[in-house]
Structure formats: C-alpha cells, structure tokens
Design goal:
- By secondary structure, this protein is mostly beta strands.
- The chain has a single domain, classed as Lipid/polyisoprenoid-binding, YceI-like (Lipocalin), CATH 2.40.128.110.
- Helix content is about 10%, strand content about 50%.
- It has an 8-stranded antiparallel beta barrel with strand order 1-2-3-5-6-7-8-9.
- The protein is elongated, with a radius of gyration of 18 Å.
- It starts with 6 loop residues before the first helix and ends with a strand.
Length: about 190
C-alpha cells in the first residue's frame, strides 16, 4: 500500500523552507501565494538508437506574487516511462532516486509584472536548479497567464545538460542517451489557503 501524502502540510513545509513567508502585520500570510499540486514535467531525449520520453504529473510549484519567487519540487521516482526497464535504470543508475529523491527549482521572476493585469506574459526566471544533489545557476524563459487578476498558469521549456548535475552515463549505453535533455513544464495555479 502506498503511503498517502498530506499535501497541505507538505506545502506549508515547502513555503517555510523556500522563505515565502514574510513578517508583518498581515491577516493572511499567504495572501500573495499561489500553488500547483499536480504540475506536469516532461523530458525527452532523442538519439539515433532510442528515444527517452518520461512524464510526471505530481510536481509541486509555489508562486509568490509579492516576492516574485517561484519554488518547484519534483519527485524523481514520479516519472513514468513507456519502457519499465528504462524507468528502473533512470531511478537506480542515473538519478539515484533513493539518494537524491527530489529535483528542485528555486528562482525569481526578473520582470516587473503587474499580477493584477490579465494577459499572457513572457517571463524570465533566474535562480538555481538542483538535481542529483548538484545546484546549477540557470536562466529560464517561460510564459505566465493571469486571469481575473491572479496567476492561473505557467509554462516553460529548457534544456538540461546531464554533466551539469554530475549525472553519469555509462559508455556502454552512451549512444542511447543524449547529453542534453529537453524539458517542458506546465503548472496550473490556485490561490493557496492554509
């Protein structure tokens, strides 16, 4: 039987760890916080030998419109592959998911956005991606959609270089795995309530 996860408790822990809470005489500490509990992360690697294609729909993402901070946490073992053996190798040999269970993105939106103005905006995120226990400074381009005066969704596409995160590919399978992996994310936000 799989253990159940208390998502609200997990969100509060993530908010505290990411520094989203701020001091002040506010009635609602989460007034500017939006969260996605079932974000989609997809990665794809194409080679002449074999395509590697995996998706998870359990990524957690938090956006604070006051600080413009974005924090995401992705469980490595949550990725599903068409080939179960490939999924096993991904978790055991490459990502070492038991040792490094999560990937994290900790960034800030660079642009000076008016989060009350509806529209779809090009955004730039600056900060770090941590994967396989290795943090890397990154800049990611994406889009943020605001509707009815609040953020409702975000998308981004970027490349991940395996060597940047000390992910080693054995030479025997090197031809089957690209050194750069195309990654796409999609998050649907809702107002976060404690």
């Amino acid at each position: 039987m799989k253990p159940t996860i208390d998502f609200k408790a997990l969100m509060v822990m993530i908010l505290l760890a990411a520094g989203f809470l701020y001091a002040g005489a506010q009635d609602d500490k989460y007034a500017d916080t939006y969260a996605c509990q079932k974000g989609m992360v997809h990665f794809f690697s194409a080679t002449a030998m074999e395509n590697i294609d995996a998706t998870t729909n359990s990524a957690i993402c938090v956006l604070n419109t006051k600080t413009k901070k974005v924090f995401c946490k992705i469980k490595q073992s949550g990725f599903t592959f068409k080939d179960k053996l490939m999924q096993e190798h991904f978790n055991e040999n490459y990502m070492e998911s038991d040792k490094f269970p999560y990937a994290q993105l900790d960034m800030v939106i660079v642009e000076d956005l008016d989060f009350t103005k509806d529209g779809t905006y090009d955004i730039t995120l600056k900060g770090t991606i941590e994967m396989h226990g290795v943090k890397k400074d990154r800049e990611i381009k994406g889009k943020l959609t605001i509707k009815n005066g609040q953020p409702v969704s975000a998308t981004a596409g970027f490349m991940v270089k395996l060597a940047d995160h000390d992910i080693k590919i054995p030479s025997i399978v090197g031809a089957n795995i690209a050194e750069d992996v195309k990654t796409n994310v999609e998050f649907a936000f809702e107002k976060f309530h404690k």
